[in-house]
């Protein structure tokens, strides 16, 4: 790869970290972003770097943390030294005890413990009475765009040619990459392209060829300033259906959503919806706040700061697609991280880069050409 021209399409967490690693490995890299860097989910997420409670994604997360620690040394983005801790909230203490035991069996490093409602109130007085929880030693609150912007700074130093404002489409000729066409009329010749355009990736591939099973699940988050900000990351429920299925309908709500709260200094980010079509955030925000107040009563009187909406690149089985695109020599994909792209993105990018540079194989569950079984 040394000296070779590579084009990376997409300026989110995946594209920016992959472009950096490729350039640092000696490739001549052009990163093409159609709108603005960190303009998709990588700039509008909740900002939690946390364990996804899944062994495959968990391995990506742990490696990503190491890459983030390195990044923090040179391009600080506010990664805390210690996790804030996550409280998985439930009304059912037995459910909490079972979940804590299961997590402890599978991921002992997370130190999961069940807390009864009294212990929850003592630990986190902002929470309404009656909630039991599983306390998990994970969850680093960061600025939503912080990690991606830190990679951009490092990419620029590594010599990546960053082009913003025109979209790119790979040009394929006789089963191999011939270059990219850009919407400003530019053609770049290259025989190596990495598709890192998140939920837009399927649109960049021919409709009659292989396409990854990636769709958008739209997430609205609301930023508020409560009188007292919780010190832990809060999440509804102890069963993480979102790590495989991309969402669940919550009883009593018209909008599929899962309560989450991310502390950020004097603010809290309240999440989030999981819906298939783009919602109007102004309509959804009051619903999210009403639900949130059942967990943290102070949210009801918190000052509204704003809201954000964007689409998660959700794969059908919950795992990203990484590695060579079947049937097109020189084309590699790294996309489909659903709700976990900030927590697992840099390690995924590293796998994609290794497969491009040295043909290193990607773990079976993550390979682009795996058989995808819906979760
Ligand atoms: C509400 C919400 C909260 C979330 N919270 C968390 C969280 O707390 N922790 C966590 O780990 N994850 C979280 N996520 C998930 C995470 O944000 C995503 O998985 C991750 O950002 C995806 O990164 P990406 O680089 O694949 O895609 P994106 O960030 O979508 O980036 C893709 C980029 O490609 C560009 N692009 C598209 N088409 C083209 C083209 N033709 N040419 C050039 N550029 C193109 C787009 O403009 C975009 O900038 C959250 C997501 C949402 C929606």
CATH-derived topology of the largest domain: FAD/NAD(P)-binding domain
| Helix and strand composition category | alpha/beta
Q: How many separate domains make up the residues?
A: 2
User: What is the number of beta strands?
Assistant: 19
- Envelope shape: elongated
Relative strand content: 25-35%
Helix fraction bin = 25-40%
Assigned CATH architecture of the largest domain: 3-Layer(bba) Sandwich
Distinct ligand kinds? flavin-adenine dinucleotide
Distance between the termini: 36 Å
Helix and strand sequence: EHEHEHEHEHEEHEEEEEEEHEEHEEEH
As a whole number of angstroms, the C-alpha radius of gyration is 21 Å
Major beta sheet, strand line-up: 5-6-4-14-15-16-13-17
Poorly predicted regions: 240-253
Q: In DSSP terms, counting alpha (H) and pi (I) runs of 4 or more, how many helices?
A: 9
- Biggest beta-sheet profile: 8 strands, mixed
Mean pLDDT: 93
CATH homologous superfamily classification of the largest domain = FAD/NAD(P)-binding domain
Q: For this structure, what is the CATH class of the largest domain? A: Alpha Beta
